[in-house]
Model the fold of this input.
Amino acid sequence: MKQINEERINNLLLGAVDTDSRKIDKIINKSKSLKRLTLEESAILLTAQDADSIDKIFTAASFVKEEIYGKRVVLFAPLYISNFCLNNCLYCAFKSDNLSIKRKALSVSEIKSETEWLLSRGHKRILMVCGEDAPKAKSSIDYYLEAIRTIYAAEVSRNKIKRININCAPLSVNDFKKLKRSGIGTYQIFQETYHEQTYRSMHLRGPKSDPDNRIDAVDRAFTAGIDDIGIGALFGLYDYRFEVLGLLSHVEHMEEKFKVGPHTISVPRIEPAEGSELSLHPPYKISDNEFKKIVAVLRLSVPYTGIIMSTRETPQMRDSLLSLGVSQISAESRTSPGGYSVSAQEQAGGQFSLGDHRSLDEIIASLIAHDYIPSFCAACYRMERTGEAFMQLAKPGTIKGKCSLNALATLKEYLLDFASDKVRASGEQMINRLSRELNQNDQRLLRNIFAHIDRGVRDEFV
Ligand code: SAM
Ligand code: SF4
Done:
């Protein structure tokens, strides 16, 4: 993996041990001015052990999160379209030698039903996910394009999916171009581990066994014109400090070569997966405190990059990570193809077990109770504020104003169309309170949008 210099990472981690607290304070102060940290500075924060420094890192992360993203939290749901896979990743239930799960690739009508189920709950943003294999007589890209068309075409009482992000195996530049033309938002791909030897030992067979092909997929996607890219590491495979510096080295590479960093970073922790012994005993199991540190250091290191957390985590953990820097969360997820709308007996195997089983309405209730604005906004992507254009807005924190307005508008729609009585009441209160804090111009804008929503218009944004 030419993008990753392992020796440099190891040396930075060694050199960071026993850094004195004044230097740590200096780095924390720098991060509070919303400046990107260097790899060396991130290594020092990652290595800090004493309770006082950790406390300061957490406080600074909360500050930066609030400065750049405000109170809004973007919600999405994964839609697994297939669990067939040619690979044999030791941690995943979809691995090819796992004979204990039922396999399924959803048909067009099943994908439509899944999307309609999600729409009927109030979801607007989907992460499409699949194993690395296509149903018979179709190429992977044709299957993905068919699925994307189906998801965007679905409609439930005036509500449609606004943005499909996709997490799928590496493609060629040509196929990435087709994906871009289909109107996807972010292309997501996790390197899993940036430590090459560990990578090779986890991916023994199949196309994914080549670490270079995987990391180069990000470059190919950029070359094809996809400028919203999501990267990630699967925490638990190797030392978390190395992985965070691996992620940040990857960010450096993207910034150097393509002038724009990743749109999002995902931080999955290994969860128990049926048929995967390794998932039950991850080689580098991450404690809750280490996990919080990972999120906080990432938030300080790349302040303008979204951090995504999935329903792998428990409600308690998710609530505390939100204040440390997470800006997008999945809600009400199922990790099996057909998991939303197909009957339990017919359901295919899921990818891993989940920690958060609350409904979307319950998650929204909890966000409101913690003073976060649940958001289904996809305005940036639709206004072509992607890639560098998004970063220009995100860097000085200007996105925050637009985000809050759009989040309130999408919340209003949710309250009218889908919310339980209890959530409607608490949501209305939140909207009234936060609207009063806006400047006159924004208040006028929002009043206008609300008047349209009351008349049945949906999906207006600034
Ligand atoms: N098959 C494609 C791939 O591997 O890139 C795309 C989808 S794969 C289902 C999405 C991600 O799930 C993987 O990149 C991996 O990080 C994550 N994953 C796999 N097994 C997991 C487990 N046991 N716990 C948590 N996350 C897991
Ligand atoms: Fe297949 Fe992806 Fe699971 Fe690996 S992580 S077995 S590639 S679905």
About this structure: The chain has a mean pLDDT of 91. The two ends are 41 Å apart (CA to CA).
